[in-house]
Amino acid sequence: MSTADVLHEGLPGVEPVHFRKTVAHFATGVAIVSCIDEGDPQPHGMTISSFTSISLDPPTILVSIKPGRMHRLISKEGWFGVSVLGEAQQGHSRYFAGDRGPAVPVFATRNRIPTLRDCLAWFECEVTSRIQVHDHTLFVARVMHCDALGGPPLLFFSSRYSAVQAL
Ligand SMILES: Cc1cc2nc3c(=O)[nH]c(=O)nc-3n(C[C@H](O)[C@H](O)[C@H](O)COP(=O)(O)OP(=O)(O)OC[C@H]3O[C@@H](n4cnc5c(N)ncnc54)[C@H](O)[C@@H]3O)c2cc1C
What we know:
Layout: H1 3-10, H2 16-23, E1 28-29, E2 31-37, E3 40-48, E4 52-56, E5 59-65, H3 69-77, E6 79-84, H4 90-95, E7 107-109, E8 114-116, E9 121-133, E10 136-148, E11 154-157, E12 160-163
Antiparallel strand pairs: 1-11, 2-3, 2-6, 4-5, 5-10, 6-9, 7-8, 9-10, 11-12
The structure holds flavin-adenine dinucleotide (FAD).
């Protein structure tokens, strides 16, 4: 039994729908996790907001992924890419969240794993540990290569897309 399980059983907690509406007030960026699929010439991508930097030395990030195709691919390959989206890339976010439009986003393999050709920043990551937390898995990964191309970010806030405004 994990620490998360103990806390879950010992406290009254809140309804998941109420939690979802409340936590939506925490603004995040939007990124695409990518992984190769041996049976498919195209890399598989998935939209996430759960990308977090957790250590500088060694450079380490985590992503929180629910069961599905991406979960299976990362578990099998042990490597994944992360591409941070810019404010004009709402279409990419929708595409990789399952709303497949006609324009197929283009990937580039910079070193080991494909990331989006056009993005604000990209990371190539090797899984170092995984932690099961209820209905999601935290994939903790070492960043092996990364770079920033720059530009204004796409934000996700209160369940809507948004952009940065100067204060
Ligand atoms: C702005 C934004 C941020 C998001 N952030 C995240 C995030 O941080 N983490 C996250 O996990 N998702 C996130 N999502 C949702 C995610 O992008 C979509 O659910 C996506 O379609 C999943 O891709 P997939 O290829 O892994 O799923 P697919 O395999 O195509 O599955 C589609 C759906 O079926 C469910 N499913 C498939 N197989 C199983 C199974 N064996 N058991 C249970 N359910 C199953 C999946 O959970 C998913 O909901 C976000 C979406 C948006 C728009």
